[in-house]
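Chain X:
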Amino acid sequence: MIAAPAFAQTSDERLERGSAVIRELNNGAPQPVLEDMREEFPFLADATQGYALGEVWSRPGLDNRTRQIAAVAAFAAIGETGFMRTHAGYALNIGVTEEELKEVIYMVTVPAGFPRAISASQVLSELFEERRAAAEGAP
């Protein structure tokens, strides 16, 4: 979990905290969607990085593992499989297993129904397959 205190006071502090969250979750790399957004929608990119990541995501109380599992479940339940995929990737990066993510999707059937869970399962299967193929090709 990020060591800096929550509720940074300046925009620059929030942006730096948000950047630290991304680096921690994304194996030290920037987040491509956020960086692409910065080209055309710099305010939206800064607001996402500063508020969503720098304020909310870096709050004390939950570790990153729990936050990622919650994010995957929430995005799957509302049918936002693109965001779910991104957060599932982060979850895998920080040690959440494929089996745990599958259980999250099984749970989604209760509050959100089978169609949302099935869509989420298809996206996760693609992510798992891509990661396995990349691991096989790694030296």
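Chain Y:
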Amino acid sequence: MRFGKIQYGLTVLFIFLSVIGGAMSLNLWATRQNIPTTATVTEDIRGWMTLKQVSEAMNIPVSEVKARLTLPVDTNDAKSLKELSSERGLSTEEFKERLFQK
């Protein structure tokens, strides 16, 4: 049995999409990292997280996160902790420790 160009193309497309769909349904295809629901220690906070994501993870307002990190009120909420710590000449770990100091 011979396949025409259209049948061959559709077969390849079907197999390709089946592999991706199967991986997605088995949770083997991840497109983003999960944010912890309740961060209680420094290891729960990642350097790639933005101020908004940190506030959601710690269940505190963004203004409180900025206050704990001694950041100006007008700091962009979309900046990552890694960016902000490097701007201030600190390591990301030192910066994250400020979040849990009372």
